[in-house]
Specification:
This is Amino acid ABC transporter membrane protein, PAAT family (TC 3.A.1.3.-). The protein is mostly helical and 186 residues long. The protein contains eight helices and no strands. It is flat.
C-alpha cells in the first residue's frame, strides 16, 4: 500500500521540519563551542602536575562519558530544579532548549577533553624537547609549537563530535514529552 506523499510533504510541513533542523543545528553549534571550552579546561586539568586537578578532570570525564546522554538530560531537567526548589523554596523554570544545550555542552566537554588531550599527546616528543632546548617557556611551547600541530590532529574528531551533537539534539525532545505528560495530568 502506498502513502500519498503529496499530503505529507506540504510546504507547511517542510517549513516546520526546516525550522526544527535549524534549531538542532543551532543547539549543536552552541553546545560544541561551550564543550570545546570545557574540553580545554578539562584537558588542562588532566595534564596538570597537581593531583587534585587531575583527579577532578578524570572524575568529570569518566562520569559524563560513562552515563547515557538521555540520563544526563533528564537529570538536569528534573533533579536540578528539585534541588533548587528544596534549597530556595522557589520553583525554577528553565527553558527546554537551555537545558538541552547545557546537557549537550557538558557531555561534549567530556568528549572534547579527551580529544584535546590526545591531540596534544599526539605531538612528537621531539617537539617538546626542541622547545626546551631553545629556552621557550611552557606557555610559549604550547602556544607557538604544540597547539598548532595538535590542531591538525584534533579537527577530524571534533567534526565527528559535531555530527554526534546534531544526532543527540533529538534526545532533548524527551523533555517536551515529559512536559506534555505533566500538562495532561493536571
Amino acid at each position: 500500500m502506498f502513502v500519498a506523499l503529496d499530503k505529507v510533504f506540504t510546504m507547511e510541513n517542510v517549513l516546520y521540519l526546516g525550522k526544527g533542523a535549524l534549531i538542532s543545528l543551532g543547539m549543536a553549534i552552541l553546545s560544541l563551542l561551550i564543550g570545546l571550552v570545557l574540553g580545554v579546561l578539562g584537558a588542562s586539568a588532566k595534564r596538570s602536575r597537581f593531583f587534585i586537578l587531575r583527579a577532578i578532570g578524570n572524575f568529570y570525564v569518566e562520569i559524563i562519558r560513562g552515563t547515557p546522554m538521555l540520563l544526563q538530560i533528564l537529570m538536569l531537567f528534573s533533579v536540578v530544579p528539585s534541588i533548587y526548589t528544596a534549597i530556595t523554596g522557589n520553583v525554577l523554570r528553565i527553558n527546554v532548549y537551555l537545558i538541552g544545550i547545557i546537557a549537550m555542552s557538558i557531555n561534549s566537554g567530556a568528549y572534547s577533553t579527551e580529544l584535546i588531550r590526545s591531540g596534544i599527546n599526539g605531538v612528537d616528543k621531539g617537539q617538546w624537547e626542541a622547545c626546551e632546548t631553545l629556552g621557550l617557556s611552557s606557555w610559549q611551547t604550547m602556544k607557538l609549537v604544540i597547539l598548532p600541530q595538535a590542531f591538525k590532529l584534533i579537527v577530524p574528531p571534533v567534526i565527528s563530535e559535531f555530527i554526534t551533537l546534531i544526532k543527540d539534539s533529538s534526545l532533548t525532545s524527551c523533555i517536551g514529552a515529559i512536559e506534555l505528560l505533566k500538562l495532561l495530568r493536571s
